[in-house]
């Protein structure tokens, strides 16, 4: 592991912390073909960036990402900034010959995502790679689910039930943040967390969403401005701001293999903290997962004798399970941060092998097309069929 992979990371809030932890941890637990170096941390504010670099373990700091792209001692740019900056930074980085890891959703619009994918395709011709951070693909139970589907254990996919439930802004006094502003985030619950379940269901089933019928809602339209810029939760300050994104999204969908799906993404499901709930019913069996119990996958095998058939609760902590052997002795369990580490492991492996890491920008674009269809469907009220109310 002597060849270094010198990383410059842009942004150091919540995602920046998760990525820093992953870059630091991956080579300590996994045998990597390249040695990641936390070379440069980039942020707008010099003082805050220096404090973050000290805390998160970065060697140097910078405030101008463009200048960082000109450096010959940077191999990869890790983009952990709000969505409105992804396209500009990622395209410039790829054109400068840097590999790119970009946080999800890939972009704020299909047009941006297309431009990014075209840049990634051009860069790939020179061995420069781009990956989008749909991290949950690398939760061991999710990876196992995909494996079971690929092995035919649930047969033909009939139903997909996918929800991503959070509650961090259910309180109307929860302050504004960039995640609630359309010009920065593109959309709300839809792009921030709905994107994850769109990607996960496509990834697990190996199929694509072909059509949707959707409704979006913003329950709280005005919120206090934050006392200080924060990432997720913060404290309310003076004045109010307007929420310009959806608080919740629900949609029906059809999958390419003929299955039906329901999707829900909300930040208003009180009591649900980070509940990524997936249930997939196939012609031969079913799978069920909830991130709030993330080391467990439920599997129903339709071939079991009826008398003893039932959902099996598989605790996904055995060395034979995806990624688990790199960590603790069997049975000890993983957390939120581990999937980010697995993302680094797979990315570094692909770079060393000269292969395309997944999810690619093209995969990110495919998700963006679904988000776009959801927004168009929700805006088109002509397909909404009102119920005739009993006049009595
Ligand atoms: C906020 O809703 C958020 O941090 C998302 O942006 C992340 O992608 C998800 O991992 C957790 O929730």
Query: What helical percentage do the residues reach?
Result: 25-40%
Strand order of the largest sheet: 8-11-12-7-13-14-15-16
In sequence order, what are the helices and strands, one letter per element? EHEHEHEHEHEHEHHEEEEEEEEEHH
Overall spatial form: globular
Helix- and strand-based class?
Answer: alpha/beta
For the biggest sheet, the summary is: 8 strands, mixed
Gap from first CA to last CA: 77 Å
What portion of residues belong to β-strands?
25-35%
- How much is the radius of gyration in Å? 21 Å
| Contiguous uncertain segments of 5+ residues | none
Structure description:
This protein is an alpha/beta fold. Helix content is 32%, strand content 26%. The chain contains ten helices and 16 strands. The protein has helices spanning 14-29, 46-56, 65-69, 86-95, 110-124, 140-150, 182-185, 189-205, 338-353, 361-379; strands at residues 4-10, 35-42, 60-62, 76-79, 99-103, 130-133, 157-165, 209-217, 222-226, 236-242, 248-255, 260-266, 275-282, 285-290, 296-301, 312-315. The strands form three sheets. It has an eight-stranded mixed beta sheet with strand order 8-11-12-7-13-14-15-16. A six-stranded parallel beta sheet has the order 3-2-1-4-5-6, with helices on both faces. Strand 4 (76-79), helix 4 and strand 5 (99-103) form a beta-alpha-beta unit. The chain binds alpha-L-sorbopyranose. Alpha-L-sorbopyranose (SOE) binds next to helix 8. This is Gfo/Idh/MocA family oxidoreductase. Residues 5-133 form the Gfo/Idh/MocA-like oxidoreductase N-terminal domain. Keywords: Oxidoreductase. Residues 144-287 form the GFO/IDH/MocA-like oxidoreductase domain.
């Amino acid at each position: 592991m002597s060849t270094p992979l010198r990383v410059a990371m842009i942004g150091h809030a919540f995602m920046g912390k998760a990525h820093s932890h992953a870059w630091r941890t991956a080579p300590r637990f996994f045998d990597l073909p390249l040695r990641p170096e936390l070379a440069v941390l980039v942020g707008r504010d010099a003082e805050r960036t220096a404090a973050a670099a000290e805390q998160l373990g970065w060697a140097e700091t910078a405030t101008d990402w463009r200048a960082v792209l000109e450096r010959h001692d940077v191999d990869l740019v890790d983009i952990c900034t709000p969505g409105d900056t992804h396209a500009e930074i990622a395209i410039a980085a790829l054109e400068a010959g840097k590999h790119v890891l970009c946080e999800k959703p890939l972009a704020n619009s299909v047009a941006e995502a297309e431009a990014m994918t075209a840049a990634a395709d051009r860069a790939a011709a020179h061995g420069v790679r781009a990956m989008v951070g749909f991290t949950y693909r690398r939760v061991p139970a999710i990876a196992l689910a995909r494996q079971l589907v690929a092995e035919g254990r649930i047969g033909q996919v009939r139903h997909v039930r996918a929800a991503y439930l959070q509650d961090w802004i259910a309180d109307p006094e929860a302050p504004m943040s960039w995640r609630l502003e359309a010009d920065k985030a593109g959309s709300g619950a839809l792009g921030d967390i709905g994107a994850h379940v769109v990607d996960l269901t496509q990834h697990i089933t190996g199929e694509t969403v072909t059509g949707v019928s959707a409704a979006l809602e913003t329950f709280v339209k005005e919120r206090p401005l934050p006392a200080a810029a924060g990432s997720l939760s913060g404290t309310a300050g003076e004045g109010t701001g307007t929420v310009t994104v959806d608080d919740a999204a629900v949609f029906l969908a059809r999958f390419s293999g003929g299955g039906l799906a329901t999707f829900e993404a909300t930040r208003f499901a009180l009591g649900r903290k980070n509940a990524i709930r997936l249930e997939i019913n196939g012609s031969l069996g079913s799978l069920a997962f909830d991130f709030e119990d993330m080391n467990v996958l439920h599997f129903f095998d339709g071939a079991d004798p009826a008398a003893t058939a039932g959902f099996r609760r598989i605790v996904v902590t055995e060395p034979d399970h995806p990624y688990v052997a790199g960590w603790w002795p069997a049975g000890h369990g993983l957390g939120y941060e581990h999937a980010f580490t697995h993302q680094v492991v797979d990315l570094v492996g692909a770079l060393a092998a000269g292969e395309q890491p997944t999810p690619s920008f093209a995969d990110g674009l495919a998700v963006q097309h679904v988000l776009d269809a959801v927004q168009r469907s929700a805006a088109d009220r002509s397909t909404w069929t009102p119920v005739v109310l009993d006049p009595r």
